[in-house]
């Protein structure tokens, strides 16, 4: 037996482990199990190369809780370690790295960076254990000679040569008082599900009951037997080649990933690259309804089937965080902080590669079956529009298949649509005006006005619309988007023809004053327009620029202009007979006329509510 001092100058490594890694205590289990998985896969490789002799036997890794003795044990039948290896890998290496690190970064540490980076993986056990034992016998050992190492969370360790029948390593954690949650079946079960669900070697945690049928025909009997409970699927779908998988396998995998989600994904993208970096994975396009609370953090990041994180913002482009699925890459560092990951060269390459793949897949779907793609459009447009807004390259790719859907539910690509409306929606300045509505029902009267003029109206109802149209305007020359209720139809698409007014300048002046005296001036700007006498007498519009800024502020971005006030234009058609009638009227009758006509315009914009609506109804009844 020997005792020794772990190779570290200060006694400080243990407090550091505990303190800096505080927020993420649970990852100790991932560290220890992935060590066990590594040891097992190494053994398999050595055996294939003929360096490990004999039968390997059952290689299942076991996780055991011994609540009475307050122990958690992780047992593998992998390569094991000799005494020299324990000394080299456990006593020395871990700390020499940590020591340099501490010197360099003293005082400015974000603890998550330490682990892993410096081979502290195994030592993360001390976040939850007051004492850790390693019992290990190397596959190289000729006899039953094994090593027993004990450390009580201080730099002194104990190393003893013992006998052990079986090859492999057993890690025994004496769980400390403040970490007793890790002695609970449910907690460990949950962690195994989180971190080990797809690890490469079978992991057993307890047992479960299974019903088996004994005998055949009439003699068949059902019997309950107890079998080992294997917590992981060692060959998840993404590790297979796409040619081996059918549509149902992908759907099955989706359910495996999200057992609590009942909606099926719309389609998937199988990522499979080995050059210039290693990347596999399956991404799913979920159904996203406009205005629905968008769910992020559904993509899981793995490194060689070991779960790393499901907070992938900054790692994959933001718009892709709306997708679901798995990304696995050996090139993703396991244990580093988010800021480190975001700046990692490989991670950035991976991210732009994924963007490209997603665009490829969408284009392929569009080309292969445009009808089907168009049907899915409504469910995927938020993701695509989001992508087009945030990634220039994705924009360039997507503009070929992003669709415009008009009020008659006809679907066009952007180019097709611009071509279509060029015929009669070019204004006097040569700009093509795309008229759009956010809501077919609410803006019905505006839409039908536009259509009455022979114009077309697209429906843009995603929460990103104002950003999206802004983006399209900057990408396409001489194209402007205007919402149908942003102005009167003649002003939306201004042509050369001028309509003269039936009123004199003086009458116009009087009319304006009368209107202003009877409406809320803070809310409405009164504007007189000479329109066709068949047009409505009063129309309320929401100026395009103000509305867009307001919407963009709500969804992030846009100019910061403080709280934008509610503001509308009240447009009076001077050629409507009502204009003259207002001019001629006197006293209460005059103001009632104005109020009533204004209320009608508000109704058209769905702005009449509460007391104003009640008053309107009473006034209407009285006049019947
Ligand atoms: N269960 C085990 N069986 C065999 N060797 C092990 C086992 N656990 C740890 N080791 C050895 O100890 C070394 C140090 O382990 P540790 O977890 O600290 O770092 P790592 O696994 O090398 O790196 P990291 O965990 O940061 O990815 C391992 O590289 C391995 O050689």
Plain-language structure description:
- α7 packs antiparallel against α8, α7 packs parallel to α9 and α8 packs across α12.
- The protein is elongated, with a radius of gyration of 35 Å.
- The protein has 624 residues and is α+β, with helices and mostly antiparallel strands.
- The termini are far apart.
- The longest helix is centred in the middle third of the chain and has 24 residues.
- The chain is built from 18 helices and 22 strands.
- The strands form five sheets. Strands 1-6-5-4-7-3-2-8-9 form a nine-stranded mixed sheet, with helices on one face. It has a five-stranded mixed sheet with strand order 10-11-14-12-13, sandwiched between helices.
- The protein folds into four domains: 205 residues, Heat Shock Protein 90, CATH 3.30.565.10; 119 residues, Ribosomal Protein S5, domain 2 (2-Layer Sandwich), CATH 3.30.230.80; 91 residues, Rossmann fold; 97 residues, Up-down Bundle (Four Helix Bundle (Hemerythrin (Met), subunit A)), CATH 1.20.120.
- Belongs to the heat shock protein 90 family.
What topology does this entry show?
Elements: E1 2-5, H1 13-20, H2 27-48, E2 61-66, E3 71-76, H3 83-105, E4 129-137, E5 145-151, E6 156-163, E7 168-175, H4 185-195, E8 203-214, E9 221-230, H5 247-257, E10 267-273, E11 279-285, E12 299-303, E13 306-309, E14 324-328, H6 338-343, H7 345-368, H8 370-390, H9 392-398, E15 403-405, E16 411-413, H10 414-422, E17 432-437, H11 444-452, E18 457-459, H12 465-475, E19 479-483, H13 489-492, H14 505-518, E20 524-529, E21 538-541, H15 544-554, E22 568-573, H16 577-584, H17 587-604, H18 610-623
Helix pairs in contact: 7-8, 7-9, 8-9, 8-12
The structure holds adenosine-5'-triphosphate.
Adenosine-5'-triphosphate (ATP) is lined by residues 31, 35-36, 39, 76, 78-81, 89-90, 94, 116, 119-122, 169, 334.
